[in-house]
Amino acid sequence: MKALATATTVLLAIGAVPASAAETKDMKIALSNNFAGNSWRQAMLKSWETVTKQAVADGVVAEAPAFTTSENQATEQAAQIQNMILQGYNAIVIDAASPTALNGAIRQACDAGIVVVTFDGIATEPCAYRIAVDFKKLGGMQVDYFKSRGIKGNLLEVRGLAGVFVDDEIHDGIEAGVKADPDLKIVGSVHGNWTQTVAQKEVAGILPTLPDVAAVATQGGDGFGTAQAFKDAGRKTPVIFLGNREDELSWWKQQKDATGYQTMSASIAPGSSTFAFWVAKKLLAGEKLPQDMVLPITVVTQDNLEDQLKHTEKGSVTNVEYKEADVSGLLAGLKK
Amino acid sequence: MPRFLSWSAAERLLPALTLAALLAGIFHQQPRAMSYFGLDLLLNLSIPIIFATLAQMMIIAINDLDLSIGAFVSLVACIGSTLLTTEPVLGVLALLAGIAAYGLVGALVEWRRLPSIVVTLGLSFVWLGLAVIVLPTPGGRAPAVLSTLVRVKPPFAPLPVYVAAVVALLGWLAVSRSSMGVVLRGAGGNPRSVARAGWSMLAIRVSVYATAGVLGTLAGLSLLGLTTSGDANIASRYTLVSIASVILGGASFTGGRVFPVGAVLGAMTLTLAASFLTFMRISPDWQIGAQGFILIAVLALRALLTRWKETS
């Protein structure tokens, strides 16, 4: 019976709900991350560190460490989350290895009174907050941009990794946009796997079979390779929608200076981790937020290209680190 | 020379001492863990690992190695989160078919004298493929019975402690105390004399593999109960973890030397090792290395004990 009594005390201690709603300076927020092996995740962790270090220094929260599992495995991340429950964090921000396999651990965290915010890799457990990316919109906005430029004719689509949810979503967005627009027609489609070299090879392979291409819809990480393939084939460079990678933006800048080339670029900022951080902080402070939120897409245009390029590190992705006020503004926009 | 403790008893106690040392370290780092709730959180993911470890132990007992157990556990979790929930009868049949397939693999290994490593490595891709067919994108829902079952809160100690104790006891009775256990270990130690004594190696291998299939199924279902939904890759790391746990528990790869109690303790030790390193705030870049170091340290200690035993 004593064990049970102790258990209850601990439960109460761990599940401590903020007494005064607005005070978060003694609270601890942890980041649970499953993978750190690419430039996007590295930038994501770095943004988290920059923003949370400042937040801790400002006395917004007591502590906000980031943890990455040593292997990219859902069971390991579930164990990591259970450890965080024990360590007494008030909120856990998660980039999940699997949309479902962490649900059990997340449920336990919620039951212990912990705020759980998932972003990028989101989890389906209803008690968790989700900050998702509207990948369909990322597809649709490309067609909208081509339309706004008055582009008519043939469209080449460079897709991502086959079978991955993100690829399907962006593709659906592009397809829906093209269907609604009789002036555009998809004449070819290849899988560039979000990798410049693969995209270059695949596009080079399909180009000889294609008529004149007016525009290329992409998914990010593949625009520069596509441009190279067109150049090598000696064809006129179409309007290639880019994905905020540093090499893509540098290429765009070159073309812009040389020939006045115009296009647009969009992707998800790795700084979304900081967005999730502020959402967690707001929830701890007692604010009511919707369970499902949509992350804004970071857009680079003809006008702010130079500015964005300056802030994008070599080999990285255009990043946005959010401040609390930015998040409040975006969330206010969402509610309308 | 009379001794307080015989060397082989010390060797047998090593897995328990390792676990105790690790628990002490965790309690020191994180006093909150020293409670019903804390132990439950720390140990509940060890339940499926314990079952997977025992499955691996059965195979290792007859000098084989199963490189497909992780994929098989994932497949069971996928079947459990789809078929078993929507069409229970079909789901149970599918699980039974999985166990039968395991038995058949045992027959294949024996008949054609194939190396088990190669067969099971190939098989792991078959299991993964089937898992992706059953559940193309992560999801599904565990049958309510399963998720309630693994969340039972028994008095005095959390569920994982009871499961570990009961499974270790049953395993010990079956492998170390029963006549079937003698045949099993004999089949690993000296298959030829077991065959000459009139036992069919085919029957032995098939039943060993089928038992491993049953244990793998239990691992998959308990994992599913804990996670509440499936993913085709959910347990891929169990293959190596289970082998490491068996060895950590005092077993050898050959000769039919296996210890169920040690294997259960080994599985719990490996589950806790990761938590311990997290509590120590060791950077993830070093964690795999540190886990390996724990493993090597324990094995080195065991080798030393064996040497002392031989020289004394």
Task: Provide an overview of this structure.
The complex is a heterodimer of chains A (336) and B (312). Chain A has 336 residues and is α/β, with parallel strands linked by helices. Chain A folds into 2 domains: 10-134 and 269-296 and 317-335, 3-Layer(aba) Sandwich (Rossmann fold), CATH 3.40.50.2300; 150-261, Rossmann fold (3-Layer(aba) Sandwich). Helices cover 45% and strands 16% of the residues of chain A. Chain A contains 12 helices and 12 strands. Chain A has helices at residues 2-14, 39-57, 74-86, 103-111, 135-148, 165-179, 196-206, 223-232, 246-259, 272-284, 305-311, 324-335, and strands at 29-33, 66-68, 91-95, 115-119, 129-133, 153-159, 184-191, 215-217, 239-240, 265-267, 292-295, 298-300. Chain A is elongated. The N and C termini of chain A lie far apart (52 Å). In chain B, helix 1 (7-29) packs parallel to helix 14. Chain B is 75% helix and 0% strand.
CATH topology assignment of the largest domain in chain A: Rossmann fold
List the secondary-structure elements of chain B in sequence, H or E: HHHHHHHHHHHHHHH
**Which sequence of SSEs, written as H and E, runs from N to C of chain A?**
HEHEHEHEEHEHEHEHEHEHEEHH
* Uncertain runs of chain A: 1-21
- What is the arithmetic mean of pLDDT of chain A? 87
CATH fold type of chain B: ABC transporter involved in vitamin B12 uptake, BtuC
What's the layout of helices and strands?
The complex is a heterodimer of chains A (336) and B (312).
Chain A (H helix, E strand, L loop, with lengths): L1 H13 L14 E5 L5 H19 L8 E3 L5 H13 L4 E5 L7 H9 L3 E5 L9 E5 L1 H14 L4 E7 L5 H15 L4 E8 L4 H11 L8 E3 L5 H10 L6 E2 L5 H14 L5 E3 L4 H13 L7 E4 L2 E3 L4 H7 L12 H12 L1
Chain B lengths: L6 H23 L6 H8 L2 H16 L7 H13 L1 H4 L1 H24 L4 H19 L9 H6 L9 H19 L1 H11 L1 H6 L4 H27 L10 H11 L11 H20 L4 H28 L1
